[in-house]
Amino acid sequence: MKTVPLRLVAAALAAGISLTACASNDDTAAAGPAPTPGVAAEGTVPEGEPDVNGDGKVVVGVLSPGDIHDKGYYQSFVDAAGSFAQQQGWQVISRGGVAPTDALNAARALCRQKVDLVALGASELSDAIPASTEAVCSETAWYVPSSENVEQTPEIFLSSDDPAQDLLAAGYAAGLVLEGRKSAKAGFIAGPEADYSTEAAKAFEAGLKLVNPATTLSVTFTGDANDPAKGREAAQAQISQGVGVTYPYLGGATDAVAELANSSDVAVLTPGTDRCDSTAPAFDISVIFSPGDYFTAALQRFAAGELPMGVQKVWRMGVDPYPTVKICDPTPEQQQKVADFVERVGTGEIDAVAEVAKIG
Fold first, then answer.
1. Same CATH fold assignment for domains 11-161+291-314 and 163-288+330-357
2. pLDDT, tens digit, for every residue of 65-82?
3. Which residues form the signal peptide (predicted)?
4. Which one of 53, 202, 320, 344 has the minimum C-beta count within 10 Å?
């Protein structure tokens, strides 16, 4: 990758880069006014960004491990790329359903198509990252959603939040809804039983118990988050057990679960996007940690030639506009309690990791 040398001289350069007008400046790099072109407080900005390979056009390549038509988490990433690219006159090449084992070859294939930016839709595809140091990808920038297993390297820009915060807040909001329904039973439906999904279920349960310690959670792993039939089957079993709320966590089965929940008068949450305006199906709680919102902020920087590699942006609940949670039709009391909860997470009064650790 051709880069502009990093120059950290004088106090003027210690200020770093602002993210967007609507988000906070909590990069790992120091924050402050707009940067000197080509300079970041940490990391390097690829020369010529956004036309990193200098061919006179800008092409963004997107790889996603999930269904990019799921109307939720995975689709939001591709939609963000498409919407922003259309405004800029850029091209987008996207591919969904990429298996982690195929991530490296898929990234190389994108680079051969002369993309300027390789964007991974989720950290499950982190096995693609070694391509960033290979000759085939030498003239590309990289955007990578981060989790604890993704190592920062000089060739990639990392974007992360804390899933414990997201899911704890989801559970807390669901607990308030259950309280209003005089119920103490909740459901959680995910695809594969993996570390990310089991930890998400624990965080959701921890949030529920912050409202009512007696609340019980039924957790179902279907093996495939994109299979609507399996999602409905799991939801039906939970509904038969008397749950008052169920959470379809990620994947293309979300709407199928929500439709069944709607017909059974069971509250349902979104996995990542704001769908409070949706009516078919309807949602009771929007849990908003959309990768599309995070990606749009990065694309704005990329367009301005200010997206540095070797830097991580950490999104914080109660500090940044995302992640957050909202009850779609709250009572004034519920709305105030959610707002207070988000603020307390932001100040550190509520430690999501510590709360999740209380769940066995």
1. yes
2. 988 887 777 888 899 999
3. 1-23
4. 344
Q: What is the pTM of this model?
A: 0.77
CB 341 within 8 A of CB 324: no
Q: In angstroms, rounded to a whole number, what is the distance separating the alpha carbons of residues 329 and 338?
A: 12
With the CA atoms of 158, 163, 165 and 168 taken in that order, what torsion angle do they form, in degrees rounded to the nearest 10? 170
Q: How many CB atoms lie within 10 A of CB 262?
A: 17
Q: Percent of the chain having pLDDT more than 90?
A: 75
Phi, psi dihedrals of residue 189, rounded to the nearest 5°:
-125, 125
Cα–Cα distance for residue pair 238/275, rounded to 1 Å:
23
Sheet holding 59-63, edge to edge: 91-95, 59-63, 117-120, 141-145, 157-160, 312-314
CATH architecture of 163-288+330-357: 3-Layer(aba) Sandwich (3.40)
Residue 92 near residue 152 (C-beta atoms within 8 A): no
Q: Which fold has domain 11-161+291-314?
A: Rossmann fold (3.40.50)
Q: Using an 8 Å Cβ cutoff, are 121 and 66 in contact? A: yes
- Cβ(225)–Cβ(253) below 8 Å: yes
**How does pLDDT run across 197-248, given as a tens digit for each residue?**
999 999 999 999 999 999 999 999 999 988 999 999 999 999 999 999 999 9
Q: How is residue 15 written in tokens?
A: 């200020």
Q: Which residues pair with 279 in a beta bridge?
A: 282
If one counts every other C-beta atom within 10 angstroms of the C-beta of residue 28, the result is: 17
Distance CA 69, CA 64 (A): 11
pLDDT value of position 66: 85
| Residue 73 identity (one-letter amino acid) | Y
Q: Measuring CA to CA, which residue among 205, 244, 201 is closest to residue 221? A: 201
The 10 Å Cβ neighbour count of residue 36 is: 13
Residues near 55 by beta carbon (within 8 Å), at least 6 away in sequence: 114
303 φ, ψ to 5°? -65, -35
